[in-house]
Write a structure and sequence with these properties.
Rossmann fold, 15% strand, binds UDP-4-deoxy-4-formamido-beta-L-arabinopyranose, NAD(P)-bd_dom, NAD(P)-bd_dom_sf, UDP-glucose 4-epimerase activity, UDP-glucose 4-epimerase
C-alpha cells in the first residue's frame, strides 16, 4: 500500500524567491543530499541562497526555480574569486566535499586535496571579500568509537579514516581562524546519520555508485535494484546484536542549518561553536529495516556478515547544547524518516538519473 502522500511543499518557491528579504547565502554542495534540502528550507525561510554545485545539476523537479550557479570545483580558486566578485554574500554554508568513508581509505590524497585544500581556498576567498560568517558541515564521525553515549560536544575527538580526519582538520582550521581574527563567526554542525527525504518526494538521497550507507542501500533493495541488504555484524553488545546509530530526518537536519544561520545573524558573539545535530535516540540496523518494511510494505532480504572495519558499536547524540543555544530540536521520528524515504524512492527508483546498465 503506498504511503499517504504527504503534503506538497507548503509555499511555492517563486513566492519565497520574491520574499527576498533574507540574507544572501552561498551554499557550496547545494545540490547534494543535505545541501538540496537546506537550499529548499532557506528559500521557504525567505533567504536568498545561491546554490553552487560541483557534482551534479540541481534537482530536476525544482531546477526551474533552483538558484544555481554553474558547477565549480572548490579547488579552482580563480572560479571562487569570480563567484565572490559577482555577489556580496552575507554567509556561507559549506557542504561541498567527498564523503565516502571506504573510498577515503583507498584514496586519502583525493580526500585531503578536495576537502581540505578546497576548504582552505574557500576560506581565503571569503576572508578577502569580508565574508566571515560560516556554517560548516561536520560529522559525528569525529567521535570515532565513543567510550560512552550520548556523545556531547566536549568529548575527545578521534578519526578512524581519512574522511573523518578531513572533518577533524577542518574543524581545527576553523578554530584557529577565529582565534587569529575574532571577526569570524563560525558554527560547526556535527551530523549524526541523515536519512529520509523531503515529504514532497521531489528531492532525496541518490548516492552515486554502490551505496555505502545503510538507508540508501535499503531503499535500493526495496525498489528492486539490489537483491538483499548485508548486515555488517550481529554480535555487538546491543539489544539485537546489530550496530546502533542516531538517525535524523534530513529535513530536521536542514532546519538545524537555518537555526545556525539565525544564530550567526542575531548579533550574539558566537565565535567558533560546535553543535551536535541528532535526535538523541539510538536505533539498531534491524530496527531501521523493520521500520522501513512497515513504511514501504516491502520485504528487505538480509545476509548476515561480519563486522565492517572501523564501525563503532553504539553512537548517538546529546542534543542539549543545540536545543539551548540554537533553539533547535529534531521533530521527526523513525516512522516519518522511513515514510518519506520510501515516498522518494518509490517515486524516483533511479534517483535523479535513469536505469544504469552497470548497476
Ligand atoms: C550505519 C549502520 C553499519 C550499510 C557514516 C559516516 C558518517 C555519516 C553517516 C557523513 C552501521 C550498518 C551499513 C550496510 C549495514 N556520513 N550497515 N549494512 O557508518 O554510522 O556513518 O555515514 O557525515 O560520517 O561515518 O553510517 O549508514 O554506513 O552505517 O549493516 O550495507 O548500518 O554497520 O552499524 P555510519 P552507515
Amino acid at each position: 500500500m503506498r504511503p499517504k502522500r504527504p503534503p506538497a511543499i507548503s509555499r511555492s518557491l517563486s513566492e519565497s524567491l520574491r520574499a527576498g528579504d533574507g540574507e544572501d547565502v552561498l551554499v557550496t554542495g547545494g545540490a547534494g543530499y543535505i545541501g538540496s534540502h537546506t537550499v529548499l528550507q532557506l528559500l521557504l525561510a525567505g533567504s536568498r541562497p545561491s546554490s553552487w554545485t560541483t557534482s551534479r545539476t540541481p534537482p530536476r523537479s525544482l531546477s526551474r526555480e533552483w538558484p544555481s550557479l554553474p558547477g565549480i570545483d572548490i579547488r579552482d580558486k580563480e572560479a571562487l574569486e569570480k563567484v565572490f566578485a559577482s555577489t556580496t554574500f552575507d554567509a556561507v554554508i559549506h557542504f561541498a566535499g567527498l564523503k565516502a568513508v571506504g573510498e577515503s581509505v583507498h584514496k586519502p590524497l583525493l580526500y585531503y586535496n578536495n576537502n581540505i585544500i578546497g576548504t582552505i581556498n574557500l576560506l581565503e576567498v571569503m576572508s578577502a571579500h569580508g565574508c566571515k560568517k560560516l556554517v560548516f558541515s561536520s560529522s559525528a564521525t569525529v567521535y570515532g568509537w565513543p567510550k560512552e553515549v550520548p556523545c556531547t560536544e566536549e568529548f575527545d575527538l578521534s578519526a578512524t579514516n581519512p574522511y573523518g580526519r578531513t572533518k577533524l582538520f577542518i574543524e581545527e582550521i576553523c578554530r584557529d581562524i577565529h582565534i587569529s581574527d575574532p571577526d569570524w563567526s563560525i558554527i560547526l554542525l556535527r551530523y549524526f546519520n541523515p536519512v529520509g527525504a523531503h515529504p514532497s518526494g521531489h528531492i532525496g538521497e541518490d548516492p552515486r555508485g554502490f551505496p555505502n550507507n545503510l538507508m540508501p542501500f535499503v531503499q535500493q533493495v526495496a525498489v528492486g535494484r539490489r537483491p538483499a541488504l548485508t548486515v555488517f555484524g550481529n554480535d555487538y553488545s546491543t539489544n539485537d546484536g546489530t550496530g546502533v546509530r542516531d538517525y535524523i530526518h534530513v529535513v530536521d537536519l536542514s532546519d538545524g542549518h537555518i537555526s545556525a544561520l539565525q544564530k550567526l545573524f542575531d548579533g550574539s558573539e558566537i565565535g567558533c561553536e560546535v553543535y551536535n545535530l541528532g535526535t538523541g535516540k539510538g536505533t539498531s540496523v534491524l530496527e531501521m529495516v523493520a521500520a522501513f518494511e512497515k513504511a514501504s510494505g516491502k520485504e528487505i532480504p538480509l545476509v548476515i556478515a561480519g563486522r565492517r572495519p572501523g564501525d563503532a558499536e553504539i553512537v548517538y547524540a546529546s542534543t542539549a547544547k543545540a536545543e539551548k543555544e540554537l533553539h533547535w530540536k529534531a521533530k521527526y521520528g523513525i516512522e516519518e524518516m522511513c515514510r518519506d524515504q520510501w515516498n522518494w524512492a518509490s517515486m524516483n527508483p533511479w534517483g535523479y538519473g535513469c536505469p544504469d546498465p552497470a548497476d
